[in-house]
Prior knowledge:
Chain A: Residues 20-151 form the Butirosin biosynthesis protein H N-terminal domain. Chain A: It comes from Chitinophaga filiformis. Chain A is an alpha+beta fold. Chain A is built from 13 helices and eight strands. In chain A, helix 3 (39-45) crosses helix 11 (257-275), helix 4 (73-82) runs antiparallel to helix 7 and helix 12 runs antiparallel to helix 13 (312-338). Chain B starts with 19 loop residues before the first strand and ends with a helix. Chain B folds into two domains: 3-38, no CATH class; 42-129, Orthogonal Bundle (434 Repressor (Amino-terminal Domain)). In chain B, helix 1 (40-65) runs antiparallel to helix 2.
Amino acid sequence: xxxxxxxxxxxxxxxxxxxxxxxxxxxxxxxxxxxxxxxxxxxxxxxxxxxxxxxxxxxxxxxxxxxxxxxxxxxxxxxxxxxxxxxxxxxxxxxxxxxxxxxxxxxxxxxxxxxxxxxxxxxxxxxxxxxxxxxxxxxxxxxxxxxxxxxxxxxxxxxxxxxxxxxxxxxxxxxxxxxxxxxxxxxxxxxxxxxxxxxxxxxxxxxxxxxxxxxxxxxxxxxxxxxxxxxxxxxxxxxxxxxxxxxxxxxxxxxxxxxxxxxxxxxxxxxxxxxxxxxxxxxxxxxxxxxxxxxxxxxxxxxxxxxxxxxxxxxxxxxxxxxxxxxxxxxxxxxxxxxxx
Amino acid sequence: xxxxxxxxxxxxxxxxxxxxxxxxxxxxxxxxxxxxxxxxxxxxxxxxxxxxxxxxxxxxxxxxxxxxxxxxxxxxxxxxxxxxxxxxxxxxxxxxxxxxxxxxxxxxxxxxxxxxxxxxxxxxxxxxxxxx
Lengths: 341, 132
């Protein structure tokens, strides 16, 4: 009996490791349905590149910084722009959520799941914080265990039902509530041209035009100004913690900030080929340089963290580097918004 | 970032089991995926975050032993939770959880409530009452 069930729910899933969970799940799930889209292309069409600094949203007492759009937005935009219809559900109880997952897996569909990394046993322990917006794909069962394609892992893996239920129904903000999603209608042939144009337009607008100081290039300057005064405002000890968090948000898996700059540059390069616009290639190269500026910032911030020597000169220098990043990105996105696509 | 510049600063935090993927440019300027075992600044920041957590855990342990706070504080720090998160796991208001952090109040908690905390921390009620 067990054997029969196993065969029934055993589907082939072509797992590819990606840099970021959300764009990675899109790329991997769509490929399963014959729609080939690279991770950078998904990221670009979904206008994933962003910046935000929200000092009043604190995680464990440390102000939040993000280098990408709010979780789920990339997915929503890509589906809308490519005409993919998704079924998406949340659940009131783990029992219902696991039951529903089993039903969909039995039909042979891979299912995207929102989860907390804290409860994923296959994650390296050092990364297991209460981060609730991780995406992964379940594509079958092996006995009671679920077969998992986690986009940031090198290979497919398995997870026991108890851990998966805990990860899907973690509490906190945002609570995943067992969210699961799977395509119900995937067009066999899509044209990327219009979706690329829309994605670029939205990214430029998000980076340049949001009339609040926290977002886009304004947000970078906002953070730069605050960073400069960390030592005198919050004290040496906290200043180092705050700085460490900026680096972690910039470089850690699933959130890599400089990484997002390189990914968007890879998108622009691919877009240049599809739309036959040489300008986009040139902008891709420029953004690659900006990504390097970000890495330089992280490198120096890391040194300040490591030495723990708090002198105001180092914070002032870091602040200037961030201002530099903001200036360069502003120029880039202004140029990008003017390219005739 | 060029392919050759993708950092390979390994440390024990990845435990040798995990490589991240990056996009970097090859000699012709074309973007290609490259894996990395880690990067020094990230490792430093990560280590620092864990040191901070460990310090808080140790501080909480000392406070529990001294009878200043209930074991809930220790286990909350140990599971990297904060007050709002813990409150939502046990289904209580934050001020109620705060009360439960007083040893006198903790000692009078019902078995049902103790079980809720134990479940949130993934330990037994026995372990909850007696920290190691």
